[in-house]
Amino acid sequence: MLESMSPTRPRRGPAPNAAMLFDRSKVRAKIKAAHADEAAGEARRPQVLAILREALDHGRQHARRALEAKGSGLVCAGQLAFIEDELIESIYHYVLTYVHPARGQETEPPCAIAAVGGYGRATLAPGSDIDLLFLLPEGASARTQNIIQSILYILWDLGQKVGHSTRTIEECLSEARGDFTVRTALLEARFLLGDAARFEAMRTRFEREIVHGTAAEFVAAKLAERDARIAKAGRSRYLVEPQVKDGKGGLRDLNTLFWIGKYVYEVREPAELVAAGLFSRAEYRLFVRCEEFLWRVRCHLHFLTGRAEERLTFDHQREIAAQLGYSTRGGLASVERFMKHYFLVAKEVGDLTAIVCAALEEKQAKPHAMLDRFGPFLPTPTAITAGDFAIESGRVTVAAEDAFDANPVNLVKLFWVADRNGLAIHPDATRLVTRSLKRIDAKLRADPEANRLFLDVLTSRNTPEIVLRLMNEAGVLGRFVPEFGKIVALMQFNMYHHYTVDEHLLRAVGNLADLEQQRFSGEHPLASEILLSISNRTALVVALFLHDVAKGRLEDHSTAGAKVARVVCPRLGLSDAETETVAWLIENHLVMSDTAQRRDLGDRQTVATFAQKVQTLERLKMLFILTVCDIRAVGPGVWNHWKAELLRTLYWETEMVLAGGHSTIDRRRRVAQAQLELRRGLPNWTDLDFVAYAERHPQAYWLKADLEQQILHAKLLNMTEVEMPAPVTHIVIDPSRGVTELTVIAPDHPKLLSVIAGACAASSANIVDAQVFTTTDGMALDTIVVSRAFDYDEDELRRASRIAYAVEKALAGDIELKEMVAARGGGQPGARQKTFRVHPEVTIDNTLSARLTVVEVSGLDRPGLLFDLTTALSGLDLNISSAHIATFGERAADVFYVTDLNGEKIASAGQQDSIRRSILKVFEPQKEELAPKAGKR
What we know:
By secondary structure, the protein is an alpha+beta fold. The protein is 54% helix and 10% strand. Helix 17 runs parallel beside helix 20 (448-458). The two termini are 60 Å apart.
C-alpha cells in the first residue's frame, strides 16, 4: 500500500521546540484580538497579514540561525516545511472563522488541502515553491471556491511562490493517467487539513486505478525525464559549477530514485527500501548522507542568495565553504576541499542510481543497459561464461562471491573483460568491488599481470573513457594508481576548466579514442593523419592520462607530473625510453597551445624557439595530438576553428624546421593550396582580380586564416573597393560556442585595436578572443569575439548590430570612448570576476622576436581591460605590430608585439620599467564613483 499519502505530519519532525518556529496558538490569539474591534472592518486584513508575516519571518530566521550554527540540512528543510504547514493551517482557520464563516447547516470541511511536490515530502528549501492541491467535492459550492481564493490571496500577499491545482477526485485520476508529472505529484501528496475522508478516497483509487500494474511505464517515463533534465543541466556530474537540484548527482536524482522505488516496491519511506531488498543498510545510510549533504548546501545557497538559486557558482562556492567550516589544507584551498566533497557525493549518488537501475532490470521494469554509447562493437560474448566471470542480465559479473578474495587481480580484470566485450558491469559486481577495495594494496599494484590488464584498458581502442570512468567511480582507479587518486573529484577553482581534474583526464583519453575512430566527423584531418604515423601510441595515451595528475600541489603541476610519470610508467611496463617520452610530454603539455595562441606565428623566431624545445618530429606529432585532446577536454565551446588553425600552422612551420627545410608539405605549397581553395570559393571572380587580391596578403595570412575566414575577408575587402568605403563590419552568430564574431575592415593605424576594444567595452561587450591581420596595402582585418548575451539569435543579432554601429562611430571619431567606457563600468571587475584572485604580471622579452619586443600581460579580466591595455601602450608612444588576445576563464593572457615610433625594439631598462608600471596601474582598483557598475571586457 502507498501509505505515504495518509494524513500524517512531516516525516522529518520540526524539532522539540516547535513553538520557536511557529507558535500557532499565539498567532490565533493575535488574530482574535485584531477582530475584537468590530468597527475596524477592512482595516483588520493588513493587521492579520502583519501578524502572519511576523510569525513566518521569525520561524525562517530561527531555521536559518540553526543551519548556520552547523545544523542539519534535512532538519532545516523539515523545519521550513513545518513552518509552512503551520502558516497554512493558521490562514485556513482565519478564513473559515472570520472571512467565510459557515452558514446554517454547513458542518463538513469545504475541501481537502494537500501538499505536493517537494513540499509533499515535508522538505522545503528557503526559496522553494509551495505546491498545493485543493481536492474538491463534485459541484463545489461558491463558498468553497471563495475559501480557496482567499487562502491563495493571503499566501501571495505574504510573498509566497505558490503553485496550486484545484481538482475533484475524477479530475486528479484523469490527469494522472496522461501526465507523469501529475502522477508523481499525487504519489507524494501529503494531507494537510480539511476533508481527510476525501483525501483517503483519492489515495485509494489512485493506487488501485493508476499505480497498479503500471510500474514499467512509470519507470521508463521518469528515467527519460531524468535524461532530458541532465542534458539541459549538463551531462557530467563533474561540472565545476554544478546544479545542486537538477544536475547529475544532485537532489533530483535522489528524488527520482525514491519515486521509482516507492512506485515499484510500494513503500512509504526510503528506509523501507532496505526491507524491500533494493538497498543494503550501508547503501541506505549512504542515501541519507548524500541527501543530508545536498540539502545543507542547497539551504545555504538559497539563504545566501535570497532566491531559489540552484547553481553552485564560483562566487557562492567560497562563501558556502566558509559557512560549512572547510579550511585550507595540503595545498588545497578551502573552496577546493569543499567542492571535492561535493563531487564525491555526486559520485555516490551515481552509484545509488546504478544499483536501482539494475534492480529494476531484474524486475523487468527497465531495459538492459549497454556499455558503449556508440552501440555494440563486438559480437555477443560467449567466452566469459567460464572461469571467474559470467554474464547476468546482459552485464558482466563475477561467478562467485570470493572472486576478488581468491585472486585480487580480478579487481582489474573485471573492467578488462567489460572493455573487451562491450558490456556494462552488473551492480552486484560493482558492490562486491567496493567491499573489496582493501585488496588493492602494494602487492597488487606491483603485480605484472594486473598492470598489463590495466594498461590494456587504458590503451584500448574501444571505449577506454567509459571503462576508466567505471573504474574511477567504483574506487578502483584511485587505489590502483594512488597518484590519480589524489586528484579524484578535485576541482580547479577557475572559470576556464568545466570539469574536475579526474573527469578532464578521462575525457582527454576518450578524445584520443574518438579521434582514432573518426567520431569527430572530419574535424581534425591533420590529427587523424598524424596518428597513423606515431610510432609509440602507448606513451601518448599514458601521457594524456597523467598530464594533469599533479594538480593541487604547491609545485608546478607540469614539473611535478613529470616526476610522477617516472614512478608510474615503469610500474605499468613502459621502457626507460617510453617513460622519458611520457615525462617530457607532461612537462611540456602546455607549450604548444601557449605558443600557438600567444605568439606571432609569422615571426620566424617564434617557430625557431618552439622547434628548439621540441627537437624531434616524433615529439612534435605526439605533442600536437596531446594538445588537441587536452583542449577539447576542457569544456564545451573551448575548442574552436581558430585554435585548430593556429595549431596546424605551428605544426607545419615547426615540421619544416625539424625536417631541415624539407617539410612533407612546404610553406609555399601550403600557401598555393590555400589560394587555390579560395579561388574555388570565389567562382564569380576573374583570374586577374583574384591574382591582384592574393598579392595583398602576406604569406602568414594564408597559413593562419581558414578558408571560411578567407572567403569572408575577400568579400568584405571587395565591398570597400566597389560598393562602400571602409570601415566595414560583419557579424557572425556562433550558438555552439556561445560567442558572436565581429569582423572589422578598416585602414590600419596604431590605435585601431584600442578603438575597437573601447567601442566594445562601451557597448558592454565582453571580448574573449581576437585575431588581427593586415594587408600589404595597409588594410586591417580584425575579428573580435565577444561573449553571447542572449539566448535567442534574433536578440543577439540586434545586440551585435549595436556593437558594430558603435565600432563604426568610434572609428569615425563621433564618440568619446573614455567617458563611455567609464560610464559602462570600465576599470571594475564584474560580479563573477571579483570571486577570483589573479596576481597581475608583465613580462618584457627581446629574445622572442628578431624585430619586435614582446610584452606579455596576465591578470584578472574585467570590463574594458583590453581597451585600457592598448590605450596604455599607445600612450607610451608604442606601435602595436600584432596582438594575441586570449582569455582563460577569469584570467586575461594577452601578448603584444611592439616597437617604438622609430620601429626599434624597446631596449632601454628605464623604458621597460615605464611600460611595466603603466600596465600594472591598469590592474589597480578604480574608485567606485569613477567607475559605476556595467560593461564587459
